[in-house]
Design brief:
Helix content is 75%, strand content 1%. The chain is an all-alpha fold.
């Protein structure tokens, strides 16, 4: 009993020293982690969070130019936004662009990416061809499709040649076709880019999984949609978010270069309306109120996409 009682203090001392050692190691790891993360955190605060907060602040001001003072007028910009007749039009056009710009790109991009992942002969050349449209600048892309869509352009010439001259149009100057013509540009340039992204992700799936399914009699179509797609659901959600964010704001570039929101308001989108209010008519405060609306829509849709993908994954 005496020997046992003498052993306990030594054991307690060893446990205490081990606890102190591990506590010190944990503290050093926390300090090291903070030192490594601090530069990135500082960068985020300076170049991401501060401009975002500044956007909300400017949206509450009356500011008609960079050289003019900012005058607080909250909530006048948002009241004006509510009564602006162009906002419903911009929302409708943006919704149409999002619907067809996502459904017209991602399913086909996934199919092309799956085909590339099979490593058929020539897949390296096809991968380069698919990705090449993303290497073209927006200005060059606009010039290419301007030549395609102009009255005497490639599209109308082809339609005349095959006897379909009755459906020729001034594609970018017709209210019924201008938005569709712009959506087609985003579809053409987006399918190849996302197909390469899907190809890169699909290569992480073991080939044995596909081979086992083929031995069980499954065809490529079944393997693609019943095996590969469920495994890629989280990545598909991420790609959907990327395409959504691009169309919501970035697609305004092609509108600026080709139609300026016209003819009339046929191609007026929220992204282009923000640009026009900020840089064409110098309503900086009002433009940032539109940016706040875009930000809220973006956050809500991203949360919705993530919620849907997480439910489908289980």
């Amino acid at each position: 009993m005496a020997a046992a009682n003498q052993a306990f203090p030594a054991a307690d001392k060893e446990v205490y020293s081990n606890a102190v050692y591990h506590r010190r190691i944990a503290q050093r790891r926390r300090v090291t982690f903070f030192l490594l993360v601090f530069p990135a955190l500082l960068w985020f605060l300076a170049f991401m969070l501060w401009p975002l907060l500044n956007m909300f602040y400017i949206s509450t001001t009356h500011w008609d130019g960079l050289a003019l003072p900012q005058i607080s007028n909250f909530p006048d910009n948002f009241i004006r936004l509510y009564h602006d007749p162009n906002i419903p039009i911009a929302l409708r056009n943006t919704g149409i662009h999002l619907f067809f710009g996502i459904l017209g790109v991602l399913p086909f991009a996934f199919m092309f990416g799956f085909f590339l992942s099979l490593h058929k002969p020539g897949y390296r050349i096809l991968r380069t061809i698919f990705f090449s449209p993303s290497l073209i600048s927006v200005a060059a892309l606009a010039m290419i499709f301007l030549g395609l869509y102009r009255p005497a352009g490639v599209l109308n010439s082809f339609l005349n040649t095959v006897g379909l001259s009755s459906i020729t149009r001034v594609w970018l100057g017709n209210q019924s076709t201008a938005l569709a013509a712009l959506i087609a540009i985003d579809i053409w340039s987006g399918i190849g880019f996302y197909s390469v992204l899907f190809f890169a992700a699909l290569t992480n799936i073991p080939e044995e999984l596909f081979e086992a399914a083929m031995l069980d009699g499954a065809g490529y179509w079944t393997i693609m949609w019943k095996i590969a797609f469920p495994l890629m659901l989280d990545f598909f959600a991420v790609v959907t978010i990327l395409q959504f964010l691009y169309i919501l704001s970035g697609a305004a570039q092609i509108v600026i270069l080709l139609t300026n929101g016209g003819p009339g308001t046929a191609t007026l989108t929220l992204g282009y309306y923000l640009y026009s209010q900020a840089f064409l008519v110098q309503r900086m405060g009002y433009s940032q109120a539109i940016a706040v609306v875009l930000f809220i829509i973006g956050i809500l849709v991203i949360l919705l996409i993530r919620r849907i993908s997480s439910r489908l994954s289980y």
